[in-house]
Amino acid sequence: MPIRVPKELPAIKVLEKEKIFVMDEDRAMHQDIRPLEILILNLMPKKDETEVQLLRLLSNTPLQINVEFLHMSSHEAKNTSSDHLDRFYHQFKEIKENFYDGLIITGAPIEQLPFEKVDYWEELQEIFKWSTSHVFSTFHICWGAQAGLFYHHKIDKHLLDQKLTGIYVHDVLAPTWSILKGFDDVFFAPHSRYTGIERKDIDATEELEVLVESKEAGLFLVGNKNNRAFYAMGHLEYDRETLQQEFKRDQIKGLHPKIPQNYFPNNNVDESPQLLWHMAASLLFSNWINYAVYQNTPYNLSDLLKMNK
């Protein structure tokens, strides 16, 4: 939450240089408070697991948040019951007239497919377009990040030599960005993907900046300089056992997966993995909610249409 101080206090200038949010008493007196409206487009197969992971992170804030879930009507879910979708999820046609403070677009285990070959690609493009006028800030995760970069900036993914899976050390490159407020210089984060984005393509795009990178895993977090879109290539929302479950799933499928790097103690798949990334996950999502969304979104969400003209 912001620090509220007298308007003329000299310390304000110092604090603002350090990217500490300060609200003067005049602004505080005229500030209206309402719940944040957050939409989650859940593209993961086991939707209930992803629901828990994301809601856990979104709850790490004193703000009241109203959460709605969205699924793709052009895709038949095989791992989530139709009853669950009918009860708890919307289709795009049902919410496209609504406005949201924030949108989270999850990953999906389809990154080896060309975007145009994904059965719901046309519907997803419609959602991407809609989000630019009906959502204040969008947080894209893994394949959702790659798809967003492709749609919004024509940056394509590339196939890796082998699946990138494990826990990797990441360097914070842009500590003055509010979404990275409170982060140490380095932190751990999980990755699980077959494709990646080239750093040179981000650097060549004026609107974008690389915020976090790993020497081993490559790009992790990219931000749009208008603070209204973020692209995370890894999975900070993952639970302790998620990579373990993916490893066993791929073993059963006969894919001969490699052991996730830096994950199992002593590389022993029978030992319980250490949880090294949830502190960073909580901080990243709470920063996104607080600084990218709450502090900047219009009180009347329909004003988004004016902002995008």
**Number of distinct helices:** 11
Number of strands: 12
Q: Report the biggest beta sheet as strand number plus sense, adding barrel if it closes.
A: 10 strands, mixed
* Beginning-to-end CA distance, first to last residue: 30 Å
Strand-pairing-aware structural class: alpha/beta
The whole-angstrom Rg is 20 Å
Uncertain runs? none
Strand content: 15-25%
- The percent of residues in helical segments reads 25-40%
Average residue pLDDT = 90
The sequence of SSEs as H and E is: EHEHEHEHEHEHEHEEHEEEHHH
Approximate shape:
globular
User: How do the strands of the widest beta sheet line up side by side?
Assistant: 5-4-3-6-7-12-11-10-8-9
